[in-house]
Amino acid sequence: MKPAFPFHVRRLMAGGLLMLLGACQAVPDSATLSQKDEITRVEHYLNDTHGLGAHFVQTWPDGGKGDGKLYYDPGRLRLDYTTPAAMKLTAANGHLVFIDPRRDSVTRMSLGHQPLGLLLQQPVHLDGAIVVTAVQHGTNSLQISMARSDSPSQGLLTLGFSDIAGKLSLIAIEMTDVERQHIRLDLDGAHTGPAWPDDLFSLNTSK
């Protein structure tokens, strides 16, 4: 039986997002120019992509699944779950709120030391406080893993992109915690447009 969802939210937030390497090693200074170019492309995508919407399927560490709608603007993320129940996760302004009406519960936490915060820096700079641990470019795909420079072994955030005709599109987000527990979001039907309205990312639990 799948553990209560709020527990997994805490695991997701406390964890390090498509593979945890045996040891988190930074991309060395001698990284090829192409690696550095790919990192720059991802920075630009995360900082310049507005009005991103997509359907997501989330997989928990035990293999259980849920789905819903993802909304993203630079520095802000919202997940509206359809299954396993109508739930909402909103992350913005350095904080996260998760609402589970089934249990009449609200979970609040800071993103300051959470891997999800790596995605929601504003603006995103993939150097300094963030260390890039791996860059993998395949046929029509790009994958980049990152962690916090001051605690790279504590968890990993991996972003997967389709890369067709030089255009990136986010298709996967995975978090791996210090115990190598994985939570993954697979996206489909992604589209972009004007920035989402500010109130979509309100941390007010009445919205």
UniProtKB/TrEMBL annotation:
It comes from the Bacteria. The keyword Signal applies. Residues 1-26 form the signal peptide. Keywords: Lipoprotein, Signal. InterPro entries: LolA/LolB/LppX (IPR029046), OM_lipoprot_carrier_LolA-like (IPR004564). Transmembrane segments: none annotated. Pfam families: LolA. The keyword DNA-binding does not apply. This is Outer membrane lipoprotein carrier protein LolA. It comes from Novacetimonas hansenii.
